[in-house]
């Protein structure tokens, strides 16, 4: 793939940091890891626990020191505890606040889940928003074979840390976490709008609304 990368100067070279990213394809963790490695950071990825049980792939993910996430169970909170420990020890955690590949028809970031805000407020580490575009053409959602032709350009843009100072010292109530999450998602969406040179929707897509809940 071709690449067009920007914002590398916003990535701290040392210390714990949360890298909050939009999710477009199963290929984007690898593509983003290339970008981050070339900018001086080795990312720790939160990955579905089921991926660890796939032959070869599971071994590779474990060697990358990824953190398994058991979705829909009480063990899901353990992944956040592990991530918090890693952050306090100086790790760079690659975090997808949406929790899954976007279901927005136009592929804009969806409403985020509150795990990234909880981690940020608990640890005080910076949250660097990162947007990317192109992975969805290389390996579209639902497909298993990459599209090698025509050659795809992978765009990445990292922004400055999200300002979460107004939440410092506040109790981590659901309302506080939702507001902080919205600020993080807005920063990611703004960066993606720059990459796409388009206006983002005013209200992010929420799959819960689409399901009628």
Question: How would you describe this structure to a colleague?
Answer:
This protein is 33% helix and 17% strand. With 213 residues, the chain is of the alpha/beta class. It has one domain (2-210). A 7-stranded mixed beta sheet has the order 1-7-6-2-5-3-4, with helices on both faces. Helix 2 links the parallel strand 3 and strand 4. Helix 3 runs parallel beside helix 4 (115-123) and helix 4 crosses helix 6 (174-196). The protein is globular, with a radius of gyration of 16 Å. The protein starts with a strand and ends with a helix. The relative contact order is 0.21.
What is the alpha-carbon Rg in Å? 16 Å
The level of helicity is 25-40%
Tally of distinct domains: 1
**Total of helices:** 7
| Poorly predicted tracts of residues | none
Characterize the overall form: globular
Strand-and-helix sequence, N→C? EEHEHEHEHEHEHH
User: Mind summarizing the main beta sheet?
Assistant: 7 strands, mixed
- How far apart, in Å, are the first and last alpha carbons? 40 Å
Structural class: alpha/beta
Strand content: 15-25%
InterPro entries: Plipid/glycerol_acylTrfase
Keywords: Acyltransferase, Transferase
GO biological process, one term: phosphatidic acid biosynthetic process
Pfam families: Acyltransferase
């Amino acid at each position: 793939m071709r690449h067009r990368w920007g914002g590398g100067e916003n990535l701290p070279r040392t210390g714990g940091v949360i890298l909050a990213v939009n999710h477009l394809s199963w290929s984007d963790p690898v593509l983003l890891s290339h970008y981050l490695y070339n900018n001086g950071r080795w990312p720790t990825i939160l990955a579905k626990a089921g991926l660890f049980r796939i032959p070869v792939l599971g071994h590779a993910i474990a060697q990358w020191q990824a953190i398994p996430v058991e979705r829909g169970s009480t063990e899901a909170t353990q992944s956040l505890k592990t991530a918090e420990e890693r952050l306090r020890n100086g790790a760079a955690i690659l975090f997808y606040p949406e929790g899954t590949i976007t279901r927005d028809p136009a592929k804009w970031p969806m409403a985020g889940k509150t795990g990234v805000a909880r981690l940020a407020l608990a640890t005080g580490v910076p949250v660097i928003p990162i947007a990317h575009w192109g992975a969805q053409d290389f390996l579209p959602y639902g497909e298993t074979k990459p599209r090698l032709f025509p050659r795809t350009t992978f765009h990445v843009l990292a922004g400055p840390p999200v300002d979460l100072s107004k939440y410092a010292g506040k109790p981590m109530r659901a309302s506080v976490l939702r507001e902080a999450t919205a600020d993080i998602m807005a920063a990611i969406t703004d960066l993606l709008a720059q990459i796409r040179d388009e206006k983002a929707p005013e209200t992010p897509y929420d799959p819960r609304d689409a399901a009628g809940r």
